[in-house]
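# step 3/5: fold
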Amino acid sequence: MKKTGFLLSSFLLAAALLTGCGAKEEAAPAGAAAEQTKVKVGVTAGPHEEIMNKVKEVAQAKGLEVEVVVFNDYVQPNQALDKGNLDANSFQTIPFLDKFNADHKTKIVIADKTVTFPMGLYSTKHKNVADVPEGGVVGIQNDPSNRARALKLYEAAGLIKLKEGVGDNATPQDIIENPKNLEFKELEAAFLARSLGNVELASINTNFAMSAGYSPKKDSIFSETSDSPYVNVIAVNEPNKDNPAIKKLIEAYRSEEVKKFIEEHFDGAVLPSW
C-alpha cells in the first residue's frame, strides 16, 4: 500500500513537472515584444493636419491607430519628437530639418518624403510684385531655413539680389542689391498671413496661407515653381527609423487614397512627392 502510494505520488510529481515545462514553452512567445499598434504624429495646423487625418483613416484599416497632435509653430513638433513625446512628425522640409539638427544637436532623421508646398508671395494691397513701392515693408519668416527660402523667393521675383553661394544660410545682410530699398520684417511663419494688413508683401508657407483662408493658386502673386527642392518629410528619431509601425504609417501616407485626396482637395496647391 505504501509502495503504491509512493508510485502514485511520483507519477503526479512527474506529470506536474512536465506540464510546467510545457506551459513555459507556450508562454515564451507572449514574452516577445508586442507589435506597436498606435503612433503619435505631430503636425502643423492646416494642410498637414488635414492630410494626416486622411492618413489616419487609411492606417486604421491597416490595423494602425494614428493620434494626430497639432502644433502652431515650426519648433515644438521637433522638440516634442526629440523628447520622445511623439513617434513621428510631418510638417518640415529637408533643409529645415538639417538646420534644426545642426542647431539643436538632435538626431532626427527622414523616414520618407511626403508632399511639396510651394511658398508664395502674398499681398492685400498689390496684384503684382512690380507694384510694391519704394521703401515698402515686406514680411519674411524668422526661422533660418524658411528665412533663406523666402529671400530666395524675393530674389526669384526680381526684387532683390543675394550674395552668390549663400544658399540656405541667407539672411537680409546677404542682400547686395535692393533697388526698391525694401525693409524686411521678420516674423513667426504662422503670423505672416495675419500681418498682410501691415506690410506691402509677405512670403507665406502654403499650409499657413491655407489656414488663413488664402488660395495659393489664386491669391499668391508670385510663387515657387513645381521643381522646388523644399519637399516635406515624415521625420522620426534615429532609433525609430525601421520601426514596423512607422513603415505602416508611411505606407498609409503614400496610398492611392491619400494621393487622390491631396490632388482633389488642394487643387494643385499641395503636390504629392512620391
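# step 4/5: annotate
The CA atoms of residues 58 and 143 lie 33 Å apart.
# step 5/5: archive (pending)
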